[in-house]
Amino acid sequence: MSQHRPAGASGSPGVVPALPDLPEATVARLPEYLRALHHLAESGHDTVSSEGLASAAGVNSAKLRKDLSHLGSYGTRGVGYDVALLVEQIEYVLGLTQRRAVALVGVGNLGHALAGYAGFGTRGFRIAALFDADPGRVGEQINGLTVRHIDELPACAAQESIAIGVIATPARAAQTVADQLVAAGVTSILNFAPCVLSVPEGVDVRKVDLAIELQILSFHEHRKASLTALPDTPGAGIAAIPNRLGGGGLGSSGTQEAVGS
Amino acid sequence: MSQHRPAGASGSPGVVPALPDLPEATVARLPEYLRALHHLAESGHDTVSSEGLASAAGVNSAKLRKDLSHLGSYGTRGVGYDVALLVEQIEYVLGLTQRRAVALVGVGNLGHALAGYAGFGTRGFRIAALFDADPGRVGEQINGLTVRHIDELPACAAQESIAIGVIATPARAAQTVADQLVAAGVTSILNFAPCVLSVPEGVDVRKVDLAIELQILSFHEHRKASLTALPDTPGAGIAAIPNRLGGGGLGSSGTQEAVGS
DNA sequence: CCATGTGAATATATTCACAGCC
DNA sequence: GGCTGTGAATATATTCACATGG
């Protein structure tokens, strides 16, 4: 499906750099652009301006243009971006031209929900296998898949070409599971367990910790409360309160910006 | 220099001391330090060096020291940090000295799992109420709580002093729910729906999108594949990298750094 | 000594502002 | 005219390296 190569133009000989090396911050935003573009496509738009796409994705237009410029320009000056073309480009860069097989380990509370989450299926992934270490859970059917024992992981990973694993076990089991995944050839891990994983070089780990997200919000609640509690105290001995506006702020993942202007 | 601020102990009641204004990147890491500190405390440590805490939290020690220095110094040169004191300080800064009430909206697939997630309870939060718009779900008991209709949100939020809301609805319902939460006085929202929310200034939104996390990993998979496939193998489909990559890789994915020794 | 805390140096990210092209 | 693409300017974050003080 990938006839398109975002290669540097001209006839520079030899190697085609399959991927431009993108800033991490840009990589983290491309999926959001992709989602917004699909939404726009469904509502009949076939082109969109940087302003329009930016607001659909919750960022400002300068950032969006800079991000897209790293992919090599696919917009038209005076017009905007071709939605279908941009979708194709971003999907190519994100490696979504193939549907990637994912192994999910841990079918407890959260694992069950993840196994049933439709969003994985519609956005480039296929949950290829479910695993658990608890024999009492092995054999259970979830969403058309049978839970297997973790010992079957190596064989299954090889057969299904699984390169991405999701850990949804309790924290105490997570490191062992990570080791097993790596041993089975997995090179990317999404970790929902509240702990740090140690993995060899070349393996990528992303972590999602639900309580941490709330704790970050708690900080902002605390700060807002402390600001409103001191309306305009005249020289109370505490240093002047920085006048920071707005909700949001930035974060490595997830904090939405307040669109000021 | 180090002005000691006993959290909530002294001073006239009602007066909230101003918070140091922390870099967002630091705020996002404090919860991880807190988790690591609790773990250390449980295993009997009562002091820890920046090196030790950093490795337990998956960051490097310089970053950790810089982060902690923003809270005002609570370490002892030549010794390290007092675990209990640091826990207390971070919990104070994050606003975790009170247990915050949270409303969860949407008890479908994911909402169910979140309602049952023990980590919220053990790390500073109390799920105070569950809501759904579907009358067929109202009345259901989950984890000791009864699902209420979303229309009861305003009354309930006021009564329970709910300032934080979690949205676990389908994307099409999320904006409406957000509006309802804001109208009910909620000023921080954790959004699991794959869409951008528009909220008034002063309301903080954090977003967790499970598919986006996988897509970011997919990018790194794609990049790793293109690097290993590059040298002189043109167009050779997908190779299932069997071996760990050798040297020179750019390590981390931005969330977790290479850990291990 | 030793490990913290911190200025200085570097790296990364965002925003501005406008040239260039449709 | 309008909008993209981009260098330059600014802001934020990370890392270095060492003075400081228990």
From TrEMBL, chains A, B:
Feature: DNA-binding region: 32-71
Pfam families: CoA_binding, Put_DNA-bind_N
Xref: InterPro entries: CoA-bd, NAD(P)-bd_dom_sf, Rex_actinobacterial-type, Rex_DNA-bd_C_dom, Tscrpt_rep_Rex, WH-like_DNA-bd_sf, WH_DNA-bd_sf
Protein's cellular compartments: Cytoplasm
Domain CoA-binding: 95-196
Claim: Cytoplasm is one of the keywords in the record: yes
Family statement: Belongs to the transcriptional regulatory Rex family.
The protein's role, per its UniProt record: Modulates transcription in response to changes in cellular NADH/NAD(+) redox state.
The name this protein goes by in its record: Redox-sensing transcriptional repressor Rex
